[in-house]
Design brief:
Layout lengths: L26 H28 L3 H11 L6 E2 H8 L3 H13 L3 E6 L2 E9 L1 H25 L2 H7 L3 H6 L17
Helix pairs in contact: 1-5
């Protein structure tokens, strides 16, 4: 097949690598835009596979993935909302759906009665293990379809600086004040 996912021939040339410096955006922003486009392609393909294999929505799947990466126990709901950039009210609904399906448990945090921690059930772990091969193939296929060598090269504009950063940098306009003794 001429248009196999490994060789995306039908893709237009990546604007972020045509004439370095010709565009308005610095390499980091061009790389970020490519990352967003790749993420969108992956999400689009994953939606149907997630529904078919796990019978959950894509947003619920993201919650399951976050919880699956925890070495032990679960996460507080406020932390899940923060990591996914979701409103807490929407997350409460998603967690309720996942709990109803038997995929997560909820419990109060001992030291803070208001805090709720969510964790995967064994059923969810088994489902994720069974589906992981198909999910991984879907991600790889989607990325191979939208990212050719030029796009991969442009993405490297994000990676070297992120890998070598030693300390988090303050957001512009939010420098931390120092307190001296």
């Amino acid at each position: 097949m001429a248009d196999s996912p490994e060789h995306p021939v039908d893709l237009p040339a990546c604007p972020s690598v045509q004439g370095a410096g010709a565009g308005l955006l610095p390499p980091e922003l061009r790389g970020w835009m490519l990352l967003l486009a790749a993420t969108g392609a992956v999400e689009q393909r994953l939606r149907s596979v997630v529904k078919e294999r796990l019978d959950v929505s894509h947003d619920e799947f993201l919650v399951l993935c976050l919880l699956a990466e925890q070495p032990q126990g679960g996460l507080r709901m406020t932390r899940v909302a923060e990591l996914l950039g979701r409103p807490k009210t929407r997350l409460t609904y998603q967690i309720a759906c996942l709990q109803h399906a038997g995929l997560v448990t909820r419990r109060s945090v001992c030291e803070d009665k208001r805090g709720i921690e969510v964790a995967l059930t064994d059923k969810a772990r088994d489902l994720l293990r069974e589906a992981s091969g198909a999910l991984a193939e879907t991600v790889t296929g989607a990325l191979a379809h939208v990212m050719g060598p030029e796009q991969c090269a442009a993405m490297s504009g994000l990676i070297p600086k992120a890998a070598t950063a030693t300390e988090p940098q303050p957001e512009p306009g939010r420098e931390h004040a120092t307190v001296s003794d």
